[in-house]
Specification:
Layout: H1 2-14, E1 21-23, E2 29-31, H2 32-48, E3 53-56, E4 60-61, E5 68-76, H3 78-82, E6 89-96, E7 99-107, E8 112-117, E9 122-124, E10 127-128, E11 141-144, H4 147-152, H5 156-165, E12 168-170, H6 175-183, E13 188-195, H7 196-208, E14 212-214, E15 224-230, H8 235-243
Parallel strand pairs: 3-5, 11-12, 11-13
Antiparallel strand pairs: 1-2, 3-4, 5-6, 6-7, 7-8, 8-9, 9-10, 13-15, 14-15
Helix pairs in contact: 1-2, 5-8, 6-7
């Protein structure tokens, strides 16, 4: 929580101000807030837990063989952040012996923070989170980043097969879609392109809220690539329609 507090302060200090924005080799953008937050987190973890490893978006995995590893996205939804859209967050997760132990998603401009510890439930402040009990796709609300992202990887027909049957769909991308599923405000979040730092914290929060998170093949993973998070009862049905 202390690390998230510090990250929030850095993010808000630069938000809707003059930002230094650079383009990475993969042509995505990075701001000075991304790099400043990640450096602060790395330095703080190294100081307090010198034996822990860190995998993070901007500076990679420098200590990949550690028993304990932090998985970090300094600013999830950088493109929203740089355009002044308040839907962005710092994502923190701790992995021990290959298993996730905790996750924090902190969205300071939204005044929201979600967290979970393995076996301890998922929370937003003092409010315990729980997924919905909706069991029919026709009654479900489905979240996603953008249809163009599915089209870019040749998965638009599967995406359309899901949302065409759903009651309602909304493009609440990045971390927020997963948190809405964990809160019970919707039944599924689908993304076709993402990395482990995008998924680690959301996965433990969704699971501790009673939901499921897998890749498109149904495999539980936070290694990246693609993801479907759901309230559980709808998971297999969504995967079946998506992959058909």
């Amino acid at each position: 929580m202390q690390l998230a507090d510090q990250a929030d302060r850095i993010a808000m200090r630069h938000f809707r101000r003059d930002l230094r924005i650079d383009r990475k080799p993969d042509r995505t953008f990075v701001t000075q807030a991304d790099t400043e937050i990640e450096k602060m987190l790395r330095d703080s973890i190294q100081h307090r837990y010198p034996g822990h490893g860190v995998l993070a978006e901007e500076f990679g995995d420098r200590t990949s063989n550690q028993e304990n590893r932090w998985i970090i996205d300094p600013i999830d939804a950088t493109h929203s952040y740089m355009r002044g859209v308040p839907v962005f967050a710092t994502l923190l997760a701790l992995e021990r012996d290959g298993a996730l132990e905790l996750g924090i998603v902190s969205a300071p401009a939204m005044h929201e923070r979600w967290h979970a510890v393995r076996g301890g439930g998922a929370w937003s402040g003092k409010r315990r989170l729980g997924v919905s009990k909706v069991a029919r796709l026709e009654d479900a609300q489905v979240f996603y980043a953008s249809r163009t992202a599915f089209k870019a990887v040749g998965k638009e027909r599967g995406f359309d097969a899901v949302v065409d049957r759903a009651w309602r769909d909304r493009g609440f991308g990045d971390f927020w879609g997963y948190m809405l599923v964990a809160e019970g405000a919707g039944e599924a979040m689908i993304e076709p392109e993402l990395y482990s730092w995008d998924l680690a914290a959301p996965l433990i929060i969704v699971e501790e809220a009673g939901g499921r998170l897998t890749d498109f093949s149904g495999r539980r993973t936070y290694a990246g690539g693609n993801a479907v998070a759901s309230n559980g009862p709808l998971h297999d049905l969504i995967l079946k329609r998506f992959n058909a």
